[in-house]
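Please, structure for the following, as tokens.
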Amino acid sequence: MLHRILSLWLCFSLSSTVFAQNSFQIKGLIVNSNTLQPIEGANIIGESLYAISSATGTFTINNVAEGTYSFTISHLGYASKTITVKVDSNMVRLKILLDGSTIALNEIEVNGKTIKRINKESPVVSHVVTKEFLANNRENSLMQTLSKIPGVSTIKIGSGQSKPVIRGLGFNRVAVVQNGIKHEAQQWGNDHGLEIDQYGIENIQIVKGPASLVYGSDAIAGVVDIQPNAIPLMHSFNGEVNLLGESNNDLLGISAGIQARSHNWFYRGRLTYRDYGDYKVPTDQINYENYIFTLHDNNLRNTAGKEANASFSLGYVSDRITSETTISNVNSKNGFFANAHGLEVRTSSIDYDSSNRDIDLPYHKVNHFKITNNTSITFNNHTIQVDLGFQNNLREEHSEPTPHGYMPTPPNTKERGFHKNTFSLNVKDGFNPNDKHNLVTGVNVEFQDNTLSGWGFLIPEYTRFTVGAFAFDQYEINSDLHLLAGVRYDFGQLNSKSYFDWYPSTINNTNGSTSYVYLQRAQDKTLDFGNVSASVGLSYILNHTTFKINAGKSFRMPLPNELASDGVNYHMYRYEKGNLNLDPEESYQLDIDIDHTTKNFSIGVSPFVNFFENFIYLNPTSNYYETLQIYEYTQSKVFRAGGELRASTSIINNLDLSASAEYVYSRQTSGPKEGFTIPFSPPLSGLFSASYQFKDVFFFKQPQLSADYRITAAQDEIVPPEEQTNGYQVLTMSLLTQLNLYKTMNPLEVKLKLNNVFNTKYYDHTSFYRLIDVPEAGRNISIALTQTF
């Protein structure tokens, strides 16, 4: 595997050398001359060259030819400074000190706020994820990467797929938004992952708590908002290549992206490919349904997969108009753990242990095609934002054709096929009538068309139409006290279509005769839903401390599987039955966030209280259908409470320490499982992290050693038939450094990571495979190389 990685890297290095010859990079740091604190948002302007300093005060200008250049550095509140820079192979990192400006402007008022300040003023409890965080903590899937954030966890399906969980709630209770458009796939399924390429993403905002006010249904628990990337600098061209290799599942991956801009026009493009084998677990046998399955070389058989993604966007920017059209396609094929589909595997003729890279039955393949356009128009005091989207999600699930009950042997391997088209339109108007008010009004419209194929039935074909209108105002009571209040109304209509079995079932009549009937599993049905969402919150900034309080009411429309499922889910080996009488979920939540941040220390706490009037869940019954236990969707009242605690410090030079903890308590207060918790409830968990920045060693530049130690308590609070899980401790270590291979190129960024250092056998309570006695992946060594140009 290492030879293949080095070969790919050599090819890239040679091509990059040709491309980047005679070009250099200007790097620098801008700080306050009195406090030596970094200055964010400073402008570095030269002839055809431009940069803005980051939150850490750093900036980089790429692809600069050898020569002497003049730059003007400016920032509101500081005196401008002009410097001369000689660019050649001997140049060093710049350190620029700006003096505070004492000039009073009597008739000119300049308004501008940093992203950090805007987030402090908003009463919404959220967490901003930067590009640096994503690069330093990247795992096999986007949600596994984000699981280091307090309050965020994942439902993992094998080594390459996962779905988001925020404060113990997942599936369609968490909305995933990309470029302003809600991601629509088959996220209702336990074993359906998230079809998004995590490479090339720069900023994500995670909203904890009810967010239906802006995003509508499916945001009842929170939002993962993948925001558009920053527009490239004028007259620029740059890109990056990422190479990845892992030992646990023999993964090989490559992702390459470029972006460029002339004056008004810009474009971006990215290609990603990943191929991996069966992943290893720290056990040699699995106990499922009282049957022992032996694992060959600790491989979780048939969990190999491959993924190929592509995206391209074209944009235009001017003083008043910004528009970008993005086309993307995510394609993956993944095997399911062979023993997860019941016990038929015992009689299968497939040799699952012949290779750890083949993808045998059962498997699924998914293709998600997406086109979005984001256009922003500014005039007077208005900013009009229009988001258009089309998504096509094609998912197929294949398994060995096996007769079940009255169903004869199916004609092929396609058990189920889901074909979903989604059309989306969002229109939003931001209006500032004066300095105190920021009014936002908007409309969201979405239409879905879902068709089926395959010989297995679980949910019917359906169409779904939703429309919602909202308005909210953020009012500045004074510079440190802000009020946010808003209201929204949504209407939704679901049209399900009838379905009959493709085979006859035997029915014994009362007169002693026998009939052969094609049973009806679904009927033509039209259901309408309407609901109101509202939110009100306050944010108060007192010196280094920010106080937030937010109360909100959200809702979620029932899904087709919850309303009209009537079939065998072989992935879970049970019979699932919907309920057409379900009401929309309604949730009331109170959030508080207190954050105290100084130069070397930060501490914060985010408690919440949540009440569901009618929580929807799949309840196991005492009834059976052809030896399979029947699970029925039902509703109950649910009370939830919990929160997150976080702290960090950098008192010692070059050493950063941080700690966080998260806890969720949930209890059903009505219904057949009154007194129990709800499914997939995460246990108490804590994360301790340490990072030390070393001095340069030989050709290793800025080496940084990090360690993450997660301690998770046992989960004894379960809802039958869930099993209790024991507590565990897992250590992860990583080394980040840079290599200056060529003086004319940007340094090569290298990340070595060792997951599950002690090869600990443990069970994650929110993992899909945990339900069938499969532990988490064993020790894994990964190497990631990133070359920018």
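Helices lie at 2-20, 115-121, 131-136, 142-146, 212-215, 560-564. The domain at 116-788 is CATH 2.40.170.20 (Maltoporin; Chain A).
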